[in-house]
């Protein structure tokens, strides 16, 4: 009769929560904030992971790029060394086209930023990309919604033709077909021959705000002093290492790099992009986990203090239960269940708010989020564990009360 079962203990804990709403909210605030942060961060990072592995690979599994600069500089000294490197040129690309046996397709790109105009409509900060005629087949393949790709003769004759992204089309040609129209890039007019399919945003940045022109036209307008990026497609992923070795040998020989000296160029692959992404998000992830852990620690301490107050308030009740046959383990069990229920309830609120916050961030920034069922289970288990751990001292104190002393306590 004096024993309380699990369901009854949980019911008593929820009754205590409801009976002291403000106190319960303040008690659980630390746990709510901690779980909220963990769930929100995990949801956003998981969503980004899913997105990155499908869309953030600028090169396919069989593709790589050769560039003057590495994607990330380790130090200022390293950056200065890279600035002193020779530029990669169209001639370097043509050498590889002639002599690289494991390279199936080779292209090159250059880029700058300019305003574009059609009639009285302007669009600023548009990426102007000078490309070779085969570059759209390498790496992240560009499909056209309408029109046709740049042709070999466009490149050979430095024609003023272009392909526009969907952002340019939507802004400058919202109610008309842009094909055949003249687009002003800077001070020069270009004939629009194609419109690329929309790719959407990547980490909040548009992938469709561009104009592609022949690389020879680009150099004619903006000079030849900029280093090109050489993009290479290989027959298979297994052949990519062989292709890189060939490219390294050919470029080092042409650029007269002495034996024993490091390369004066850098290979870029999709794996490197993903590794950089992982390095960036791992730091953010662990920083958020550390902050959340502090919030959970504070929340656990508050739960322990509130349970100590509950033991003091219910001393006479504990004495009565012991007098009619409750064992010490029954008292211990009751307070542990109540403590775990309190913290688990806070965790549940944190989970709901965390997913809500992740959805809001996704809606505002276009960064994807993903609900991971494992994170829900972990959050619930962590919340319950905090309640059990920090509730142990109050529960043990209640179980060790002397029944006679407890019965003498004034209500």
Could you describe the 3D structure shown?
Helix content is 56%, strand content 17%. It has two domains: 6-54 and 280-408, no CATH class; 63-268, no CATH class. Strand 8 (201-202) and strand 9 (205-206) form a beta hairpin. The longest helix has 44 residues, at 270-313. Helix 9 runs parallel beside helix 12 (373-399) and helix 11 packs antiparallel against helix 12. By secondary structure, the protein is α+β, with helices and mostly antiparallel strands. It has a six-stranded mixed beta barrel. It has a two-stranded antiparallel ribbon with strand order 8-9.
Helix/strand layout:
Elements: H1 6-19, H2 21-55, E1 63-67, H3 76-83, H4 90-99, E2 103-118, E3 121-131, E4 144-147, H5 152-156, E5 161-164, H6 166-172, E6 182-185, E7 188-196, E8 201-202, E9 205-206, E10 210-214, H7 215-222, E11 229-234, H8 237-254, E12 266-268, H9 270-313, H10 315-323, H11 328-365, H12 373-399, H13 403-408
Parallel strand pairs: 3-10, 5-7
Antiparallel strand pairs: 1-11, 1-12, 2-3, 2-6, 2-11, 4-7, 5-10, 6-7, 8-9
């Amino acid at each position: 009769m004096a024993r309380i079962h699990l369901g009854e203990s949980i019911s008593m804990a929820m009754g205590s929560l409801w009976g002291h709403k403000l106190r319960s909210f303040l008690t659980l605030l630390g746990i709510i904030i901690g779980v909220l942060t963990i769930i929100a961060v995990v949801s956003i990072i998981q969503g980004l992971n899913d997105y990155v592995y499908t869309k953030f690979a600028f090169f396919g599994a069989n593709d790589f790029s050769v560039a003057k600069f590495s994607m990330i500089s380790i130090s200022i000294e390293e950056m200065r060394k890279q600035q002193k490197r020779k530029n990669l040129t169209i001639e370097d690309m043509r050498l590889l086209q002639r002599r690289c046996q494991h390279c199936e397709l080779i292209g090159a790109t250059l880029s700058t930023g300019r305003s574009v105009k059609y009639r009285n409509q302007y669009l600023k900060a548009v990426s102007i990309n000078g490309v070779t005629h085969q570059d759209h087949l390498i790496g992240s393949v560009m499909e056209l919604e309408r029109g046709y790709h740049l042709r070999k003769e466009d490149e050979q004759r430095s024609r003023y033709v272009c392909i526009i992204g969907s952002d340019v089309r939507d802004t400058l040609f919202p109610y008309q077909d842009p094909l055949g129209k003249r687009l002003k890039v800077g001070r020069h007019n270009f004939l629009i021959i194609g419109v690329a399919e929309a790719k959407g945003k990547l980490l909040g940045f548009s992938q469709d705000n561009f104009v592609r022109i022949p690389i020879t036209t680009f150099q004619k307008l903006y000079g030849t002093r900029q280093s090109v990026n050489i993009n290479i497609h290989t027959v298979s992923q297994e052949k990519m290492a062989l292709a890189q070795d060939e490219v390294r040998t050919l470029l080092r020989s042409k650029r007269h790099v002495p034996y024993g000296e490091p390369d004066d160029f850098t290979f870029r692959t999709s794996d490197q992009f993903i590794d950089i992404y992982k390095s960036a998000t791992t730091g953010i992830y662990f920083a958020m986990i550390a902050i959340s852990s502090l919030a959970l620690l504070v929340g656990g301490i508050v739960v322990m203090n509130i349970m100590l107050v509950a033991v003091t308030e219910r001393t006479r009740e504990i004495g009565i239960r012991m007098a009619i046959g409750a064992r010490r383990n029954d008292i211990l069990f009751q307070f542990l269940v109540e403590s775990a229920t309190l913290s688990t309830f806070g965790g549940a609120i944190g989970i709901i708010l965390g997913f809500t916050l992740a959805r809001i961030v996704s809606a505002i920034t276009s960064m994807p989020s993903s609900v991971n069922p494992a994170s829900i289970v972990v959050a619930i288990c962590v919340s319950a564990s905090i309640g059990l751990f920090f509730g142990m001292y109050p529960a043990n104190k209640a179980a060790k009360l002397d029944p006679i002393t407890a019965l003498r306590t004034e209500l």
